[in-house]
Amino acid sequence: MKVTLVQSPIYWEDPAANRKMFEEKIRQITEPTEIIVLPEVFTTGFTMEPAGCAEPHQGETFQWMKRLAAEKNAVITGSIATEENGKYYNRLIWMQPDGKHFQYDKKHLFTFAGETKNFTPGKEKVIVEYKGWKFLLLICYDLRFPVWSKNNYSSEKGFDYDCIINIANWPAPRSHPWRVLLMARAIENQAYVIGVNRIGTDGKGMEHSGDSALISPLGENFSNIMPNEEKTETIPMPRCQLDDFRKKFRVADDWDRFEIFRSEK
After folding, report:
1. In this structure, what DSSP letter does residue 224 have?
2. Average pLDDT, whole number, for the chain?
3. What is the pLDDT at residue 264?
4. Where are the beta strands (DSSP E) in 140-255?
């Protein structure tokens, strides 16, 4: 499978300008790819004023993703500020070429930046199956909570997932934890991890260095994207390497067994 990472700046609270910019980047992808990954809240940046720029459920950006996924014959995924039933969500949309879609609402809202005061947390863990792969969908701060992303294995059902996709607006001052946590989640879960982060300065003056990556189950970074580089990169993600490593190094047989119960928080 080939995946495309889009590391980019984001116009502050300007969905139309961001759709135009990202559409140009997507149309410039010439290499065949199955999945195109955009950053967290790619139409607005990490604003804490969603009332002015959030979109209704399945609104304009949703339809835009549906059109482009069909045109490129690839999944397009990224999150947008969404309003539904009077509440705001940081909602990841997974849009497939045939129009089938899934959504994940960010579970761990970033209290430090005021996200808990302005958005509603999601409650459901979302794993999507696509072309023989299983993807766990995460957003930014979720990366810091290993219990939420814990993989499971049984001889009857196999692994819960094969790859984590985490999209982010992760600030440059904390770029070291970002890089370390991407590797940790890959190694501890025997899975690939795709991390796509924005670059540039947001409307609050916060700097972002990107550091987007495709991490192998052994903790290797397959991406050549540099920090602060505006770049779109398509990268092979070999299934054979994942399967061979899982068979050779059977740490999953010894994983702790537990179940996450739905929280009303």
Report:
1. -
2. 97
3. 58
4. 153-154, 158-159, 163-168, 192-197, 199-201, 207-209, 213-215, 231-236
* Residues recognised as catalytic: 40, 106, 140
Question: Would the pTM count as exceeding 0.85?
Answer: yes
- For the segment 16-44, the average pLDDT, to the nearest whole number, is 99
Half-sphere exposure for 100 (CA within 13 Å, toward CB): 4
Q: Which helix (H) or strand (E) holds 128?
A: strand 127-130
Collapsed DSSP state (helix, strand, coil) of residue 183:
helix
Residues contacting residue 143 through CB under 8 Å, at least 6 positions apart: 149, 166, 168, 178, 181, 182, 185, 195
Q: In CATH, what number does 2-254 get?
A: 3.60.110.10
Tokens of 224: 């050549």
Q: What is the Cα–Cα distance from 15 to 10, expressed in whole angstroms?
A: 9
Q: How many CB atoms lie within 10 A of CB 187?
A: 16
Give tens-digit pLDDT for 71-80: 999 999 999 9
Phi, psi of 250 (to 5 degrees): -90, 55
Q: Locate tokens 């792969």: which residue? A: 133
Which residue is associated with the tokens 């609104």?
Answer: 59
Distance CA 54, CA 57 (A): 9
